[in-house]
């Protein structure tokens, strides 16, 4: 289990970025579910961000699940004990564990507020969203945010990106195209996805460079995409969402084109959920956050501000 490096609920000897986030979290910023909201889903038809009661239910289910599977996996039991102690006995004693639904959603809201404040005063069209599906970094195909973060930072710098705020996501991809021979289908794997904002003036050259650095494959048909950002905070929220998906590649019959490739989403299997919790535990509170040319600075209201690095 990863060392949280905290004592008495406060940050101790943490890296600068994690310390700034931990201080803001300890001040309660992000835990107010009414402070910032966004809708999710295509065309903004999806549900709103979760409220406190919904998060409380998620947390109770997560604790039960960890307790159940912790009988066979001691590391899961240890994570469950951390989450069970979140806010116990003292309102501001947060566990700050990325697998805790309460703390994970609070971190997401904190980042949405911080990035939204940073981009609000800029000219329209100053930012674009970038989506990068990273090459599988582990031979066993398991989720690994630590290795993916180092890989992503190297790729972004090689592509000439100097300013950006991004997050790491993961999906568990399975090939269910049963009509194809087995050797034409890809192996099941955890696919780490980098998503966030970069400066518009750097985007065209960065996209071209990233496409050279990450060639398309049978498993990853379009590894790099960019599009103008309209200022919708849902894009920031998506980059730091705490829930993950299982994506199945299938063949669907089309009247004009015959069998076409598409995907469907399913709930994670038990083994995939175990992988996800372990990947989060190894990454720590801020292990999925990638900042280029920017860093967090605490301000006296207990919030964060993004400032250029010196």
Structure, explained:
This protein is α+β, with helices and mostly antiparallel strands and 310 residues long. The chain is built from eight helices and eleven strands. A hairpin with a 2-residue loop joins strand 1 and strand 2. Helix 2 runs antiparallel to helix 3. The radius of gyration is 20 Å and the shape is globular. The two termini are 34 Å apart. Mean pLDDT is 88; it is low at 2-14.
Which helices and strands, and how do they pair?
Blueprint (H helix, E strand, L loop, with lengths): L5 E2 L2 E2 L4 H11 L25 H18 L4 H11 L16 H20 L6 E7 L11 H14 L5 E12 L13 E11 L3 H11 L10 E5 L5 H6 L5 E10 L3 E9 L3 H14 L5 E4 L1 E5 L5 E5 L2
Parallel strand pairs: 4-7
Antiparallel strand pairs: 1-2, 3-5, 3-6, 4-5, 4-9, 7-8, 10-11
The chain-level structural class is alpha+beta
Low-confidence stretches: 2-14
**Largest sheet geometry:** 7 strands, mixed
Instruction: Compute the average pLDDT.
Output: 88
- Principal-axis shape equals globular
- State Rg: 20 Å
Helix content: 25-40%
Number of helices: 8
Would you list the SSEs in sequence order as H and E?
A: EEHHHHEHEEHEHEEHEEE
Strand content: 15-25%
How far apart are the first and last residues' alpha carbons, in Å?
A: 34 Å
The count of DSSP E runs of length 2 or more, i.e. the number of strands, is: 11
């Amino acid at each position: 289990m990863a060392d949280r490096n905290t004592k008495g609920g406060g940050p101790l000897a943490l890296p600068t970025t994690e310390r700034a986030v931990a201080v803001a979290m300890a001040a309660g910023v992000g835990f107010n579910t009414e402070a910032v909201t966004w809708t999710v889903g295509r065309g903004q038809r999806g549900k709103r961000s979760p409220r406190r009661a919904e998060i409380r239910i998620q947390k109770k289910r997560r604790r039960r699940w960890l307790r159940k599977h912790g009988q066979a996996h001691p590391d899961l039991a240890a994570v469950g004990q951390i989450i069970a102690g979140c806010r116990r006995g003292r309102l501001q004693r947060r566990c700050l564990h990325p697998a805790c639904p309460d703390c994970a959603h609070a971190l997401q809201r904190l980042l949405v507020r911080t990035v939204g404040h940073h981009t609000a005063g800029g000219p329209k069209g100053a930012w674009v969203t970038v989506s990068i599906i990273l090459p599988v970094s582990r031979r066993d195909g398991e989720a690994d945010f630590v290795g993916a973060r180092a890989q992503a930072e190297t790729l972004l710098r090689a592509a000439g990106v100097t300013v950006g705020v991004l997050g790491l996501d993961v999906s568990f991809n399975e090939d269910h195209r049963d009509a194809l021979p087995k050797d034409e289908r890809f192996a099941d794997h955890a696919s780490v996805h980098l998503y966030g904002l970069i400066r518009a003036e750097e985007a065209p050259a960065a996209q071209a460079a990233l496409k050279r650095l990450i060639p398309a494959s049978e498993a990853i048909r379009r590894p790099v995409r960019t599009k103008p950002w309209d200022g919708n905070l849902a894009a920031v929220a998506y980059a730091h969402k705490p829930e993950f998906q299982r994506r199945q590649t299938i063949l669907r019959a089309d009247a004009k084109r015959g069998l076409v490739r598409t995907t469907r989403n399913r709930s994670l299997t038990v083994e995939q959920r175990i992988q996800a919790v372990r990947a989060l535990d190894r990454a720590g509170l801020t292990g999925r956050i990638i900042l280029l040319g920017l860093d967090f600075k605490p301000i006296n209201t207990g919030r964060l501000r993004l400032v250029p690095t010196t």
